[in-house]
Design brief:
The chain is an alpha+beta fold and 294 residues long. It has 2 domains: 114 residues, Aminotransferase class 4, branched-chain amino acid transferase, N-terminal domain (D-amino Acid Aminotransferase, Chain A, domain 1), CATH 3.30.470; 156 residues, Alpha-Beta Barrel (D-amino Acid Aminotransferase, Chain A, domain 2), CATH 3.20.10.10. It is 28% helix and 27% strand. It has 8 helices and 16 strands. The strands form 2 sheets. Strands 8, 9, 10, 11, 12, 13, 14, 15 and 16 form a 9-stranded mixed β-sheet that branches. Strands 1, 2, 3, 4, 5, 6 and 7 form a 7-stranded antiparallel β-sheet that branches. Strand 9 and strand 10 form a beta hairpin. Helix 2 packs across helix 3. The radius of gyration is 20 Å and the shape is globular. The protein binds 4'-deoxy-4'-aminopyridoxal-5'-phosphate. 4'-deoxy-4'-aminopyridoxal-5'-phosphate (PMP) binds next to helix 6 and strand 14.
Amino acid sequence: FDQLEGSIWLDGKIIPWSEAQVHVLTHGLHYGSSVFEGQRAYGGEIFKLEEHTKRLHASAEVLGFTIPWTEEQINDACKQMLVENNLTDAYLRPVAWRGSEMMGISAQANTIHLAIAAWEWPSYFSPEERLKGIRLDMAEYRRPDPKTAPFKSKAAGLYMICTISKHAAEAKGYSDALMLDWQGRVAEATGANVFFIKDGAIHTPIADCFLDGITRRTVIDLARARGIEVIERRIMPEEMEGFEQCFLTGSAAEVTPVSEIGPYSFVPGDITKLMIEDYMAAVQPAKEELLVAS
Ligand code: PMP
């Protein structure tokens, strides 16, 4: 990743990829005072860009700092990164953090930095391949109580337990891990929300201690538009025994079918397939914009 070509937006300047570096005494590195986003561009358009940028701003406010760039400036910078790097289908990673002027838990005066990187990350699974589903282990760590961690912030610090869990799962040959919440209920995967299907209805946990993903909300709307019932409720892990299908959602994961979670198995089927199709149609740029661009 270090050697990728292209440019990165850092604090208002566009610089070569390899020069986008931070000091080792960066507060964000030592104390996790860092927030980030992850969004995809399809056909040159960034899907739900405004929502992602709003969430980035809100994530920073939860951690007590204000990003010194307006939403409009960030949106423009994201679009500029696509153009500069000659990308149409890509993943974008904006990240904001407290800088290195002061070292210590308190660093009120430290400069707030913002970087935006973009790189090619096509959705390379064909519908057939996706439909096989991925295998998930059960994670050892649980999503913390909302009184223990600021779960509405997409804060780097909250990903410590996600990386530990995902690495442990990968070491056992799984693709990802399913995390329970602090009360032992089904929560989400390490970087994506989870949905189950039973008797023609979709069931998903209430996002009351984990990220209410932009993709999650999009898929809920798409399913309801199809007349499919979507039930947000508390789900105990034992209930997975009775679910027929399962999929994950996320800006990076898109809609990814799951074939196994620990001892439970699922067969990706009709509704999962429909949600993949509807999501992939929803992310395409509007026809009018394509006409204007051509
Ligand atoms: N949960 C976690 C922990 C995530 O990292 C992500 C990805 N941002 C999601 C859920 C899904 O969020 P979104 O659909 O907004 O990408």
